[in-house]
UniProtKB/TrEMBL annotation:
GO terms for molecular function: ATP binding; ATP hydrolysis activity; phosphate transmembrane transporter activity. One of its GO terms (cellular component) is membrane. The keyword Transport applies. Keywords: ATP-binding, Nucleotide-binding, Phosphate transport, Transport. This is Phosphate transport system ATP-binding protein. Residues 1-39 are annotated as: Disordered. One of its GO terms (biological process) is phosphate ion transmembrane transport. PANTHER family: ABC TRANSPORTER I FAMILY MEMBER 17. It holds the Pfam family ABC_tran. It comes from Halomonas korlensis. Residues 44-286 form the ABC transporter domain. The keyword Ion transport does not apply. InterPro entries: AAA+_ATPase, ABC_transporter-like_ATP-bd, ABC_transporter-like_CS, P-loop_NTPase, PstB-like.
Amino acid sequence: MNMHVDERRPAPMSGHERSRHESSSQEAGQPVTRNPHAGHELSIRIRDLSLWYGESQALNKLNIDIFQKNVTALIGPSGCGKSTFLRCLNRMNDLIPGVRLEGLVEMDGRDVNAAKMDEVALRKRVGMVFQKPNPFPKSIFENVAYAPRMHDLVSRKAEQDELVEHALREAGLWNEVKDKLHQPGTSLSGGQQQRLCIARAIAVQPDVILMDEPTSALDPISTATIEDLMDKLKKQFTIITVTHNMQQAARVADYTAFFHLGEIIEYNDTRTMFSNPHTKKAEDYITGRYG
Ligand SMILES: Nc1ncnc2c1ncn2[C@@H]1O[C@H](COP(=O)(O)OP(=O)(O)OP(=O)(O)O)[C@@H](O)[C@H]1O
């Protein structure tokens, strides 16, 4: 279910929910959150999300609305919970023993953690790109064709060829690889491998693409190529990216969430976050006073 948002609050909430949200936000001092872009549709709604690794709490009552077809950047010092939060969105934390989670992660109106949620289907809808490019030890072609075949999105060879070409074009890689589709994915440069991983993610037509520091292992030119790609891909996909690079967040993100010690301290449109942060902690981090 898609919802329109008003100018002051990222997503409509019931009266009960609102008071719960506001009081928990005040208790935890979080988050300062606004949506000046009226009309953006809600993609993911997070309410009072907490997570523990065994006895150790990594996320504390997070509340955030993520908007469709935008880039949202997650920033904050090392160990503040950005990757943990990202993994809540496709239930990858389920794979870690001893993880306990409370609160709501809702995608298009459906509870991601509901028992009846099909995890394979969820991970098809929510693709992921990691810090270090990780192509399968297979050909360039197979890297892209494998998941669509597994999900029965293609059956005939011609359909498969078409889909692979389309995904590689979307990822800005087609011209560089069209004559060597049957060479190993690992034979490509780091930046090309990362674009191959993006092609692999978009080949199953997800709604959301999670990116965990997607350019931190890349040179400046490959980084700029991926940033341009993110700008293009957000027309079709909701992108959530973790970055330690403040300039990158300022360049690519429509919204930015600042994490600190497992809490979202501030969530704002990126322009406001970087020109007029509403919290001292975010300002200090952005201006490099700590990090
Ligand atoms: N698999 C795990 N088991 C136990 N603790 C973990 C695990 N993964 C992360 N943590 C802990 O959870 C907290 C948040 O870690 P997380 O990796 O989410 O932070 P981050 O903001 O992404 O950090 P970085 O920017 O360094 O990648 C840290 O204290 C970390 O040590």
